[in-house]
Amino acid sequence: MEIITPQRLFHGTTDNLVPSFQKKLLNSQYWRAARDFGEGFYTTISIKQAKIWALKAAEKYVGDARPCVLEIELISVPSTFEPLVFLSDSLNWADFILRHRKVLKKGEDPCKIHPDIIIGPMADNDTGKILEQCVQLNKDVHWFYDQITRSARGRRLDALRLGNQVVFSSEKWSSSLRLTGYHIQSRGRWIYHENTSSAESV
Fold first, then answer.
1. Domain that residue 164 falls in
2. Structure confidence by residue, pLDDT tens digits, 32-63
3. Of 49, 58, 80, 71, which is closest to residue 160 (Cα–Cα)?
């Protein structure tokens, strides 16, 4: 099966981390457990969505940091890789998220073989709080699926409204990705900076 991947991707972060990403874009030691698709480098095809991620990252950061969106070019694909593609939200998609969200210890994984790249919709609403309720109330995946596909106001959203994420779960993709530039929010405006670092960005 051939997977045609997006060429342009975006990652929301904070500006103080740009030098680290310029040195090494994919660094698994910083990937966190308990995320939708497990540990990995999370990107999206939507710069608008990446800006939302960046704003949230800056809000959580303790210290002086501005929202930043990395612009990444996918220049090739590894000769062999294990993909997983969710074309839309579904019970299988919700079950995958539920199982990976329950993993709290780095390095542990509910998959026998974790995919190298995962493409699919994002969960909406506050997934962390929904997971806590799911565990406390002993709810099943049907309940979890219904909750993560609703907005904060309770309105059901389809896959197009949920947004898309592309997650790289292996550093084998390092030579396939290139950091081309980054957008930093300053005084309410997003300013683009071309990546001119002489350091390796993969």
1. 8-78+86-194
2. 999 999 999 999 999 999 999 999 999 988 78
3. 49
